[in-house]
Amino acid sequence: MMLPGSQEMLIIVLLILLLFGASKIPELARNIGRARAEFEKGKKEAELEMKKMEEEMKKSPKSNSELKKEEEDKSKTVNRKEEGD
Hints:
- It is built from 3 helices and no strands.
- It is mainly alpha-helical.
């Protein structure tokens, strides 16, 4: 992918100036920076969550049959509670 050259960048900057005005550019840049920081924060949180999940799976690996049995037990418990209400 080719990056825009100096002439293209100048045209882009001039268009931004025309569209937003000189007074709005610092605010626009600040908002873009905040959005990027928020995105990075969310990305790091997601990565940490994935690592925690991987560690949990390594600590207690369960077979499919064990997972199905746990699901069945949970659904039976829910059904009993509903019948009791």
